[in-house]
Amino acid sequence: MKDLFLVVDATSRGNFEKLTRHRVPGAIPFGGKYRLIDFTLSNCKNSGINNVAIFPYGNYRSLSDHIGSGDRWDLSRRHDGVFILPPKNLSLTVENEISFQRMYEHIEYFYRSNQEYVIITSANMVWNINYYDFLEEHLANESDLTEVLSDVRKVLKTYIISKKKLIEYIENYDQIAFRNLSDVFDYAPGIKKHTIIINTFSYNINSSSELYEANMQILLPWVRKQIFLDSRPIYSKETMSAPSRYGDFATVKNSIIASGAVIEGEVTNSIIGRKVKIQYGAKVTDSIIMNQSIIESDSVVEYAIFDKETRVLKGSIVTGEEDNIYVSEKKQIVTTHQKLAILQVASECYPYIKTGGLADVVGSLAEEYSDMGKKSQVILPLYPHIKEKYDLLLELKVSNSIFYGNKNYKINLYSIVNTNTVYYFVESYDFFERDKVYGYEDDGDRFAFFSLAVVSFLDAIDEYPDIIHLHDWHVGLLPLILKNRQRPIKTLMTIHNIEYQGVYDIDILTKLQIENPVQYTRLSKINFIEIGLNHATKISTVSETYKDELRYEYYSKNLVEIINKRFRDFYGILNGLSEDVNPKNDLEIAMKYNLVNVFSAKKINKLDMQKKLNIIRGEQYFVIGMVTRIVEQKGFDIILPALHQMLENPLVEFVILGTGDEVYLEQLKQLKSRFSDRVSLNLEYDATKPQYIYAGADSFLMPSRYEPCGIGQMIALKYGTIPIVRQTGGLNDTIDNYDTSSKRGNGFKFFNYDTRDLLFQLNNAFNIYINSPDDWRQLIINAMNSRFSLADSAKKYLDLYQNI
Amino acid sequence: MKKMIAMILVGGRGTRLGDITKTIAKPAVSFGAKYRLIDFTLSNISNSNISTIGIVTQYEPFELMNYIGSGASWDLDYVDGGVRFLTPYSQSEDVLWQKGTAHAIKQYFRFIRDHSPDYALILSGDHIYKMDYNLMLKTHIEKNADFTIAATKVPFKEASRFGILEVDSEGNLKSFQEKPEHPKTNLASMGIYIFSIKVLEDLFFNGDQVDLIDFGKDIIPHCLNKKRDIAVHVFEDYWRDVGTIKSLYEANMDLLEDNHFLGLNSSKDLPIFSKSLNLSPHMILDSGSVKSSVIADGSIIAGTVIHSSIAYKTSIGIDSIIEDCVVLPNVTIGKNVYLKKVIVNQDLVIPDNYYLKAEEVTLITDKNLLEVGEIK
C-alpha cells in the first residue's frame, strides 16, 4: 500500500468573498467543526496514504496552523508526511487549477516521492472515499490518465496518473500546449483516458454559495450517512470545548450544533460552529454560523454565512436571500438600522457630468445607498455644463472663501436633491469655469483646490459624514488635508484604474498649507493617488482579482510598495451593472428578448446586425463582437494576429465598435481589406448605441492585458453573448470557463497573454458553437443568469463602510 | 525554579459507583457529557505547568491508558517526563500489589527519585474541580511545611464521608479524623498532598519502622504524633468527590444548573481539556427538542431532552422523552421511551416503549434494565 501519493490543489482562490481574506479556501470552516481540508487529509489517513503535498496560492498561514505537523492525520512521519509547498514565483496570478508550471517550482518533491502513482485533487472537496479504489480502477483500465467525476458528473478536479507521466508533463511545461491536467484530459491526443464516476456524495466547493449549499446538504440524512462513517472517520484538529449547552427556552430544529455552543434562542436548518452563542430571543434560520460568533438577543439571522467571531448586535436583522447569501467577514460586527451618513467625493457623477465609467459607478452607488436607507451625499465640482443644464434645480447653500497658496478664493456650495440623495457642487470661477472636465495644465491645482473646498464645506452639508468615499486620484490629497485640519473622519479611497495617478509639483502641498511637504514624497513631485493610498483609512479597487494583481509590479508599477504595505486594508469590490441594461426592454435592437425567446431573437438580431454592417448575412456564421476603446490595454497586440488566423475559417465574422490608437486602427483596416465581406469596423465610437452588437454577436471578445473591472463583458452576459476573456482583474471575477461535463460556466477564459492561448479559446468557442448547439444554448442560459448588480456592490461597500 | 512532580493515584475500585466501574477505572467515568473524571486532574496539572506525571494504576487500567495515551490532549506529552503509567509488576516472586495510597507511592519511589524533583504532588484522579496547584505549593513554601493538605468546606451532613481536619490559628493541622461519625468541623481533606521530597523519603525509608500504608489512615496521624509541620491549604471553589451514584448524578446536575460551571463554556483562562474522539457535531432533527441540557458530539436527537446531560454518540428516538437524566456515552435510546431521574450506563441499548420514572436516582444497566423499568 505504498504506491500512491497525493497532490492537493489549493491554488485556486474561488469566489468566497470575505471568507478568503484571511485564509486559503482549504482552511474555511465547514460543517460546524471541520475545515475543508480535513476531508482530503482524512481520506488520506483512511486510505493509508502518508505522502501529501499541498500547493496553496496565497495566505496559507491559517492552513498550516490547522494542519500543524499533520500528526492528526498520521502524516507526521519520518519519511514522507505532509508538505505545504508555497508558490515561489509570486508574479504568477491565481489560476483555477494547478498548472504544470506551478508544480515545476517544486519538481524536487516529485523526484523524491518514491510512490509510483499520484492523485491530484482539490483542497476543497467534501467527500469520504478511498483513494486506492481509484487507483485500482485506473490500473484495471490500463489508463494513462483517469479523471474522477461526481455522481452527477460534476468536475472534481481529481486525476490519477503515474508519477513518471506527470513528471514528463511538469518538466516540459514550457514546451507543451497544456497548462494543467484538465487540458491534457480534454485535448491531448494519443493517451488512454478513463473516467471514474463515483457513487457517493461529493462536493467540490469553489464559492461562498457552494459552501452554503454543501453545508445545507449535510443536514440531509443520506449525505451524512455517506460522509460520516464510523469505519472512516473525518479527523480534525483537536480543540477544547465544552459540550453544547441548551438554555431553558432553546428551540432547535434540523440543525447541526458543534461543541461548546450555547443555545438560548431559536435555531432552524442551520449549522452552528464551536463556541457560538445564540442568545435568548435570537432567531437563526437557514444559516451557517462559524466558530465563536455571538448572535445577541432578539436579533434575526436568515440565509447568512458568518465567518468566525462575527458579532450580531442586539435586535439586529441580518437577512440574505436564498440565491444571495449574506456573508460576513471574520470578527465583523453586524447590525441593521445603523444610521450612516456617506459622502462620496469625485470629479464626475452620472447624471450630472460623465466622461467615463467612473461617473456611472458614483451615481448609481449614491442612489442605491439612499434606497437602503442611508444618508447618501455626493460632492462634485460645478462645471459650466451642469450649471446650464440644472440651473433651475441648483440651490445655493453657502458661500465661503479659502486660501490656496497666498491667494484668497471665493467658493459657493450648491445642492440638488434627487429623491433622497443630495448632490453638492462646488463653484469656483478660477478653477472649474472651463469647457472641459480634465486636460488642463493646472489639473493638479484644480483638484487639490477642490479637495480643500470640500473639507471647508464639511460643516455646511446636510449631515456631517461618518465616512468619506474618495474616487480616483483627483481627490487623493483629501485624506491628508483631513488629517492636517484635525478632522478625524474615516475615509475609503477607491482606485478605478491605477494607470491614472496625478503627478504634480510639490508646491501644491505648500499651497494647501501643509507643512514640511518633503515628508510625503521622495521626489520633487507629489503623486496624488500615492498620498491617498497612504493616508486613507481603507483602500479598495474594483475587483477582487485586480486587487490581488496589484501586489505585483507588472500591474501596479511604481505603486507596488505602497499597495503591499497597505494590503491588509485593501479590499476588492466588483462594480455592478445597472438593472436598466437589459435586452428585454431595449428599443435599439431588432427584437427584444429575455430567456424565453432568446434563441430565436438572437438569430434575428444577428441577421439585422449583419445587414446594418454590410457583412455576409447568415445564421450559420460565428460572429465575434467587440465594443471597446482600441488601445494596447484591451489586448490588441494579441487580438490582431489571432483574428488573422481565425478569420481564415470562412464561417467566422468579426465586428468592432470603438475608437483609439492610430496604430491599431491601421492594423484593423488591413484586417478589413483582407476579409472585407466578413469584417466590419465602426471606428466612430458612439457609446450610446452599441447594443446591436451586444444583441447580434455570438461571442464578445475582451482579452485585456489588464482590466480593473470591465463592463463590456457584463453587458455581453446580459445579452447572452458569450465572453471570451483573459483571466485578469474583473474579467476573472465575472467569467467562469465553460465546462462541458458539468455544464457550468458562462464564457471562455485563458491565462497567458499570448496569441496562441487566445486562439485556442476562440477555436474552442467556435467548435462548441458549431458542433454542440446544446452546450452553446446552455452557455447562453448561464450567461443571462449571471448576476452582477449594482445593488450587490452597494451592499458590499456599505458593509465595508460599517467595518471601517 | 523548584520542580514538582505529580503522582496521580487511580488505583481505587470505586465500587460505590456500581456497574459503571465494572469495566472501567473510576477516573475514566464519563462526566458532563463529554468529559471523563480524569480530565479535570490532568487539565489542572497542565494549567499548573507541571511536566512530569506518574499515574499509578491498578484495576482495569486498559481503558484509562488508552484514553490518556501520550497525554498530548492535555498538552502533557513532554520529552523529559510527560505522562508515565506505573502499573503493578512482579518483583522476584511477589506481585507488587498496592496495599494503600501511601504504599503505592512508596512502590514507585524510584520513579520519583529518577526525576529528582523538590516536591511531590499527590492527587487522585476522580474529583471535579479546577485548581492551580502552584497556589497550594506557595502555601506549602510560605509555611515552610513538611507537607501540605488541600482542604475544602463540605456540608456538615456529608462530612462523615471525608477525612475531617481541624486547623489551628496559623492554618496548620491540629487534628484529623478519617470519616468520623461526629465530625468536629466541616473542613474536608481533598486527598491532595504536597510533600517536600526529603520528608517523603524520611517517612518511607528512614522513619520508624511503622508500615505506612495510607495517607489518611497512617501518614497524617503518624506525622501529627511526631509533631511534623502539616499545613492546610484551603480551597474555596467548586470541588466534588463523585464517589457514589448519587454524587455523580448531583455533580452532573450542578453543571446543568450553573451556566458558568467551572467556566467550561467560556474561553478564558484554565480550560478543561479532554481527548477529542473525532466525532461529527451532534444534530437535532426536526422532531427533536432540547431544553436546559448539555449534549456532546456524535449524538442524534429525534426525541425530547429536558434538563439532562447527554454524552457523546447517543441516539434518542422519536417520541422519546428524557428528563432529569444523565446519559453516559454511546447509548441508544429507542422510540417512545420515557426516562426520568436516571443514569443510563454507557453502551446501553434501551428498547422502544421503555418506561422508567424513578423517584430516587437510579442507574440502569443491561442487567437491571427490566427490573427497574418496564416496556409499556
Outline:
The complex is a heterodimer of chains A (804) and B (376). Chain A is of the alpha/beta class and 804 residues long.
Structural notes for this entry:
The complex is a heterodimer of chains A (804) and B (376). In chain A, a hairpin with a 2-residue loop joins β31 and β32 (421-427). In chain A, the strands form nine sheets. Chain A has a nine-stranded mixed beta sheet with strand order 30-31-32-29-28-33-34-37-38, sandwiched between helices. Chain A has four domains: 4-206, Alpha-Beta Complex (Spore Coat Polysaccharide Biosynthesis Protein SpsA, Chain A); 245-334, Hexapeptide repeat proteins (UDP N-Acetylglucosamine Acyltransferase, domain 1, 3 Solenoid), CATH 2.160.10; 341-572, Rossmann fold (3-Layer(aba) Sandwich); 583-788, Rossmann fold (3-Layer(aba) Sandwich), CATH 3.40.50.2000. Chain A has 804 residues and is of the alpha/beta class. The two termini of chain A are 53 Å apart. Helix content of chain A is 31%, strand content 23%. Chain A is globular and about 85 Å long. Chain B has two domains: 4-257, Spore Coat Polysaccharide Biosynthesis Protein SpsA, Chain A, CATH 3.90.550.10; 277-375, UDP N-Acetylglucosamine Acyltransferase, domain 1 (3 Solenoid), CATH 2.160.10.10. Chain B is 21% helix and 31% strand. Chain B is an alpha/beta fold. In chain B, β2 (30-31) and β3 (35-36) form a beta hairpin. Chain B is built from nine helices and 29 strands. The longest helix of chain B is centred in the C-terminal third of the chain and has 13 residues, at 245-257. Chains A and B meet through β12, β13, β14 and β15 of A and β16, β17 and β18 of B. β14 (255-257) of chain A pairs antiparallel with β16 of chain B, so a sheet runs across the interface.
